[in-house]
Amino acid sequence: MKGVGQMYKGQVRSPALVIILSIVTCGIYAWYWIYKMSEELQRATGKSTISPGVELLLCIVTCGIYPIYWFYKYGKMITEAQEQAGLNAEDNAVLYLLLAIFGLGVVNMALMQSAVNKIWEQDII
Fold first, then answer.
1. Which of 23, 42, 90, 95 is the most buried (most CB within 10 A)?
2. Predicted TM-score of the model (pTM)
3. What residue segments make up the domains of the chain, in order of their start?
4. Cβ(115)–Cβ(91) below 8 Å
């Protein structure tokens, strides 16, 4: 397990901009965001079961079924990253799952981006 001082820091993104870009690009930015979020959280937690490219491919070829699982899985990874960063861990994986089931993936993206921004903004040196 990584020490707190060795944690990978991902890119801080505006949750509002993530939503706007996803809508304006008709979902293309959402695919990019899923790839980058997969990559950053795998590096931060040290868990890399499936490459980010394969995660993205599964999201596309399953016509929206795999992203439901993806939101749950990466919700759990966010909780792990929060623990590793020394933050109060909030396990919102079930919330992300329910929002995805009801077609509110864009809300998930904003919530998840906000959660990881708090991790990336930590002064952990």
1. 42
2. 0.88
3. 12-120
4. no
Q: Cα–Cα distance between 56 and 54 in angstroms, integer?
A: 5
pLDDT tens digits, 59-82: 999 988 999 999 999 999 999 999
How many CA atoms, within 13 angstroms, populate the side-chain half-sphere of residue 17? 4
Give 18-35 as a DSSP string: HHHHHHHTTTHHHHHHHH
Percent of the chain with pLDDT over 70: 92
Other C-beta atoms closer than 10 Å to the C-beta of 68 total 20
Structure confidence by residue, pLDDT tens digits, 89-119: 999 999 999 999 999 999 999 999 999 999 9
**Region of 89 on the Ramachandran plot (φ > 0 left; ψ -120 to 50 alpha; else beta):** beta
Q: Could you give the CA distance from residue 34 to residue 36 in angstroms, rounded to a whole number?
A: 6
State how far the Cα of 95 lies from the Cα of 67, in Å rounded to an integer: 14
